[in-house]
Specification:
single chain; 6-stranded mixed beta sheet; 7 helices; 10 strands; 30% strand
Amino acid sequence: MTSTYSQLVKDLRLGKYDGEEPVREMLFRRYGVVTTNVGDKKRAWDLEVVALDGKQIGLADDTYDSDKMLAKFIKQFGELIEVKRDATGDRTGNLYWECWSNKRVNNPGCMLTCKADTIVFVRKKEFVFLKRSIFLSWIMDNLFNRTELSDNWRKKTFRGGKKQMMSARNNPDVRGILIPVGDIIDSPACFHVEPR
């Protein structure tokens, strides 16, 4: 077993138990939303909204109220949710945005290929909710138009005279950029921050 493979297994466990499960619990506790975890099935998202438990949020047994509340939740959050747990973000204040999951074979990063409506970045003290389409558009606009934000991201990513995107830990084929958490929270894509 290579160190890259063992790191991948560790990251997947961290994502599931310190990312996806806390988001599932929070969505149920706060909104009464029941989700299934489809991340293990190699789908292009992690959580799928399946129902609303009206009793959890104090609704009577009236089905109409539950259906109405579920429709309201889906309108705001969507049905498909991608969960990202980035421990580096807690330590450094920067999130690692994966542009390539395997640069050698031109395999784009998971954010570019996922089909979720919403991305939730799980941090030690909060959940940051982003509209995926707006988030991708915001990142691409900044990267390709050389804005003040993207110049700051480049300084963080290419420090020390590096000429290529940062690799992820032990895997030189994974490439990405560092984006300050504050920039993400202030972006037009961020529509909700939930304390943990």
